[in-house]
Amino acid sequence: MSEPEWRTVRPVRTHEQVLTQIQQKILDGRLRVGDRLPSERELGEALGVSRNSVREALRVLESMGILSAQVGSGRDAGSTVAGRSTAALSNLLRLHMALSQFSLEDLVDVRIELERLAVVRAAAGADVGDLERLRALTRAMAEPGMDYERFHELDSEFHIALTRASDNALATDLMQALRDAVKGEMIAAFRRVRDWEVMVSTLTEEHLAILRAVEAGDGKEAAELVTQHIKGFYAAVGDAPE
Amino acid sequence: MSEPEWRTVRPVRTHEQVLTQIQQKILDGRLRVGDRLPSERELGEALGVSRNSVREALRVLESMGILSAQVGSGRDAGSTVAGRSTAALSNLLRLHMALSQFSLEDLVDVRIELERLAVVRAAAGADVGDLERLRALTRAMAEPGMDYERFHELDSEFHIALTRASDNALATDLMQALRDAVKGEMIAAFRRVRDWEVMVSTLTEEHLAILRAVEAGDGKEAAELVTQHIKGFYAAVGDAPE
DNA sequence: GGTAGCCTGTGGTTGGACCATAAGCACTGG
DNA sequence: CCAGTGCTTATGGTCCAACCACAGGCTACC
Questions:
Q1: Which residue has the closest alpha carbon to C7 C1'?
Q2: Cβ of A95 and B55 within 8 Å?
Q3: Strand partners, B79
Q4: Candidate from A26, A94, A171 with C-beta closest to B98
Q5: Partners of B68 in beta bridges
Q6: Residue B126 burial (C-beta neighbours within 10 Å; 0-12, 13-18, 19+)
Q7: Predicted confidence pLDDT, tens digits, chain B (242 residues)
Q8: Which of A54, A63, A179 to mutate to test the interface with B (most CBs of B within 10 A)?
Q9: Strand D at less than 7 A from CB of B52
Q10: Nucleotide nearest to A75 (CA to C1')
Q11: Cβ of B60 and A55 within 8 Å?
Q12: Which sign does the torsion angle of CA A209, A214, A218, A222 carry?
């Protein structure tokens, strides 16, 4: 009979255990959007843990967009489970990009696939409001004297709206996060363009063509157009998209 | 001369300012992977802030996989900038799924697109090691007496390896996160399968076919196969993929 | 020369204190 | 009677001081 295999114990930090318990409640569905958590002091007492440890766990969840905290007293005070936060995802991707986890090229490839998915779905039947929004955006982009910042904003909105029209929340959030994460690079790329006016009108024309294909219900054509649109842009702004 | 417009002041929390400063250093490239931060005490003093506030910021960054902390003294002690953490992304997606931000259907659609991208890229030229790994996984899956948990693990590894063969780090991490996020649902789906043995052999056969297409350099065929593979599975386990 | 034990710097944790906020409540003056 | 004003209370936000466990380096002893 041999020595029983010793497993090295890993230190389990208190705030991580708090985090785990809260996360588990969310995963189990015992905590839903809108629910209110006990106060930091109560939670600490209930878990037999200091308020600081509780706070560290709550701050983490807050940074993930899972919780939101309000001071004061009454119904709305305290930590509540909050949904809808693309910001956390964007932030995460942006930081990981800065740490060179992902290359711009990787990101463009993923983006193309997401947009192809989006336009195919959108062409199959998009909401009227979404289409109207897309039309309004193309009109706005056609206005003269567009500066880099403003154009990027409209361009992003167009592509995000395109994804939203596909009725896929995950794809929409990912697209938003991706656009957000590369905002700086995009604007820098705009500056490198020789003839800005021409670029703006070219891109806007392509947007219009994509939109027309979607409205016509031609998903295949829209997918091709959107692919060329994105690839063409990156080819134009830098053969070496560093 | 009218009243100057009053702008409501937003409370700026200390730990958020700490967070912002560190993030900015990362985004500016002033902090890179492997760099070591000042100790919590020093950082607090340098920022004119309590150690608690510093800790809350550091814990948040740690939860995002950006930092890692080691106790003790010497070179390796303290907080260092760490790259490579898919766990944070998975966790974020899983929690948001639990809060019904994303439906399983959305996720499957995104997954299909990512895998199509992956196999096309992989077919165009995959690393020999990646292909060998994929072959090994198909062999492992063909072994008799596969239980749900084990099969899911191998299945996930196969699809992640497929993505890795495409040499797109973002797509790989997203795939890992997506698989991770739906692990529970997947195993539950496996349990619903009437003839498990048949399902295993069917899926494994399909894996082999996909792998063969990739090895043959036929990206288009591989993309079709992988799409059918995924759609087929979800159609089989539940007409209503709740 | 090796090693046991001390020293020091690190994150981990706790408890207590104080602040600003915001909601509810009671009192007060018209 | 009632409007307004302050008090009370519960909350998150912040800070401080202390202690612990850990890990590496150093030193003095054998």
A1: B73
A2: no
A3: B69
A4: A26
A5: B80
A6: buried
A7: 554 556 667 779 999 999 999 999 999 889 999 999 999 999 999 999 999 999 999 999 999 999 999 998 888 889 999 977 788 988 998 898 888 778 888 889 999 999 999 999 999 877 889 899 999 999 998 888 888 999 999 999 999 999 999 999 899 989 988 888 888 888 888 888 888 888 999 999 999 999 999 999 999 999 999 999 999 998 887 644 44
A8: A63
A9: yes
A10: C23
A11: no
A12: positive
The C-alpha atoms of residue B242 and residue B225 are separated, in whole angstroms, by 24
Q: Work out if A79's Cβ lies within 7 angstroms of strand D.
A: yes
Q: How far B142 CA sits from the closest chain A CA (Å)?
A: 31
How close are the terminal C-alpha atoms of chain B, in Å? Answer: 61
> Which of B26, B71, B109, B185 to mutate against chain A (most A CBs within 10 Å)?
B109
Residues B38, B40, B45, B48, CA torsion sign? positive
Which chain B residues touch A33 with a CB distance below 8 Å?
A: 99-100
Domains located in chain A, CATH noted: 14-81 (1.10.10.10), 86-237 (1.20.120.530)
How far lies B170's CA from each of A106, A127, A163, in Å?
A: 6, 30, 19
Is A150 in contact with A190 (CB distance < 8 Å)?
Answer: no
Residue recorded with tokens 């814990």: B59
C-alpha distances (whole Å) from A162 to each of A122, A214, A223, B200 are: 7, 9, 12, 38
Q: What is the dihedral of CA A205, A208, A210, A215, to 10 degrees?
A: -160
Cα angle A189-A193-A195, degrees, rounded to a multiple of 5: 155
C-alpha B237/C-alpha B44 separation (Å) is 54
Of B174, B113, B34, residue with least CA distance to A181: B174
CA of A39, C1' of C10: distance in angstroms: 31
Pick B59's closest partner by Cβ from A60, A95, A173.
A60
Q: Which residues of B touch A50 (CB under 8 A)?
A: none
Nucleotides of chain C touched by protein CB (<7 A): 8-17, 20-24
Helices of type H across B99-182: 104-123, 128-141, 148-164, 169-181
Q: Rounded to whole angstroms, how far apart are CA atoms B100 and A234?
A: 35
C-alpha closest to that of B22 among B83, B85, B79: B79
Residue linked to tokens 């390796």: B76
Nearest residue on chain B to A22, alpha-carbon basis = B95
